[in-house]
Amino acid sequence: MDTIREPSSKCLVLLPLDAEYIDLYMSEIVPAIEMVGLQSMRLDELPSAGLPLVSSIWQAIKNARVIIADLTGKNPNVFRSIYSSL
């Protein structure tokens, strides 16, 4: 018997970790995400739970209902995370 899984309320935000982007995240992105009833999270905010980093990233991507990626500046880490979600 298949079980019905509740949709996640998580919104994973992929962006560079520079101060400029963190300010944008806190002032604009988080309020917009919360306005639609989702919970925002960044990869650097994930609890590791003893998992390797790649496993933690994959788990966060898999559990997210929505993924938002800021591709400004062509940050390789953001592109790598997007590629992992495909």
Report the principal-axis shape: globular
Please provide the count of β strands. Answer: 3
The main β sheet shows up as: 3 strands, parallel
Strand content: 15-25%
CATH topological fold name: Rossmann fold
- What would the average pLDDT be, to the nearest integer? 81
Radius of gyration: 14 Å
> Which spans have pLDDT < 50 for at least 5 consecutive residues?
none
The secondary structure category is alpha/beta
Give the strand order, joined by hyphens, for the main sheet.
2-1-3
Could you give the order of the helices and strands? EHEHEH
CATH architectural type: 3-Layer(aba) Sandwich
For the terminal residues, how far apart are their CA atoms? 28 Å
The CATH superfamily name is: Toll/interleukin-1 receptor homology (TIR) domain
Number of domains: 1
Indicate the percent of residues in helices: 40-55%
Under the CATH scheme, which class? Alpha Beta
- Work out the helix count: 3
